[in-house]
Prior knowledge:
single chain, alpha/beta, two-stranded antiparallel sheet, 7 helices, globular
Amino acid sequence: MTWDDTHARWWLEELAGDPSYExxxxxxxxxxxxSASDGTxxxxxxxxxxxxxxxxxxxxxxxxxxxxxxxxxxGPVVIADASLGLPFRxxxxxxxxxxxxxxxxxxxxxxxxxxxxxxxxxxxxVVVHNxxxxxxxESGPVIDTTDGEVLxxxxxxxxxGHTDEPAxxxxxxxxxxxxxxxxxxxARQEWALExxxxxxxxxxxxxxxxxxxxxxxxxxxxxxxxxxxxxxxxVGLR
Length: 238
C-alpha cells in the first residue's frame, strides 16, 4: 500500500474528529519521553507536527510533503521514506520517537535499526504503538448475549498478517506482530528496554467502547541505545 495525499487528508480529518489522540496517545508519549535530553531529537513519521518540538529542539521526517509542510511550522522537517532509511549521519540525535508508525511498515525493524544508527550511545527511543491485540486479524469484541458482557476475540494473534481499515476513500494497512516479536526485534538492533506500558482507551461515552476498557488499546515503550554503531559529527543529511 502506498501512502499519498489522500491519506494526508484522511489523517488531518482523523485528528480533528477523534479525541483519543489528545486523551490517550499524547499523554502516553509524554510519560515515556525523558524530561531532559541534551541534544536534538528526531520525530520519525512526524505527520503534521503534532509532537514536533514538544520535548526540545527537534527534527522531523515524514513521507508526505503536504503533511511535512504543515509540520515545518514547528521545526525543520525532511521529506523521506523512513522505512527505507533515515537521511541523517550516525549518532546525530540524543533521542528519537515514533508514534503510530511501525504498525504500518512491512519491514519495521529496518527502521528500528536506522534509529539505533542515528541515536548516540546512551540515547533513547520511544515508541507508541497500537496494541497487537487490536491488530491481530479477525480480532474484535464479542458480546455475551446472556448478560451483555463484552469479551475479546484474540483472532490470529500468534500469527502474522495484516488488517485493512477504512481511511477516507481508501484504506490504511496495519501489519500485525506479537508483543514478543516487537520486543525481540528491538533487542536485536542494540536497544535495551527500560519501560513498557499497556493502556486502554480513556474515558468515553460510547457504551460499547466503555465495556472494552479492560482491553489494551495502546502500548508505549522506551529503550536505550547500547553499543556504538557508528560515529557522527552532528545533525545533518548524509
